[in-house]
Description:
By secondary structure, the chain is α+β, with helices and mostly antiparallel strands. Helix content is about 40%, strand content about 20%. It contains 13 helices and 13 strands. Strands 10-11-1-12-3-6-13 form a seven-stranded mixed β-sheet. It is globular and about 65 Å long.
Amino acid sequence: xxxxxxxxxxxxxxxxxxxxxxxxxxxxxxxxxxxxxxxxxxxxxxxxxxxxxxxxxxxxxxxxxxxxxxxxxxxxxxxxxxxxxxxxxxxxxxxxxxxxxxxxxxxxxxxxxxxxxxxxxxxxxxxxxxxxxxxxxxxxxxxxxxxxxxxxxxxxxxxxxxxxxxxxxxxxxxxxxxxxxxxxxxxxxxxxxxxxxxxxxxxxxxxxxxxxxxxxxxxxxxxxxxxxxxxxxxxxxxxxxxxxxxxxxxxxxxxxxxxxxxxxxxxxxxxxxxxxxxxxxxxxxxxxxxxxxxxxxxxxxxxxxxxxxxxxxx
Length: 314
């Protein structure tokens, strides 16, 4: 498993909110849903995305943006257009005065807007669940990442558009997976840019020593790794691996592994039916007590408390 695949395994869409919006100017959507991540694709027309505290960005047809939450932002035909719709947590849509807009603006299956024949069409996919694993990716993103139509070639927006209006068996799962693929494709394009400021773990993927070491740690976290055993697997000396890994990734191999195991544990604990004992085994701890000690030391809360808080939030 390569580094990006491992880290993006965390934000898999599950019951994501997906919608096609058809709009005529003037229109302005104030997004206050506090979701961790939203993908916006412009199919036709244009849109301005205005993150709070950041520069507005104009999106044209074929452009795709990733907006990092939970900060609020506005999507509009023009940055000067005052909001006419407020999107609250739980995807509740109201006027600025609090009048519910769900029924008045519903056009068709997963289609919404102020004009069925409007010249602007947006596809929006909102991740509603957080992931500790994916935070390693999301924490390095600016508030808005935009990939322009002429800089990449992907059929995913067209596929998502076609599937959004269908309502067959398993449709939610199909849409969730398409949203995941679109997110991964966009982030892969953005992270490969020289000016993206990609983190050390991403740049290190291509290193002949550190890249394989990262893939082993990501794909086999439960193994009893030491620097020596990891070095043996990648054909390097212990000292060379430790030095090169720290130089490129920014932390020693075992420190990286310890943080990776705890991120995985945090995500696994959110899954229904998981016990602390099961999770401890899956991420490489010899006992629930060992995981609990490490988890509480790093995060200030026990695995059980973390699991209970996540379930209450969900």
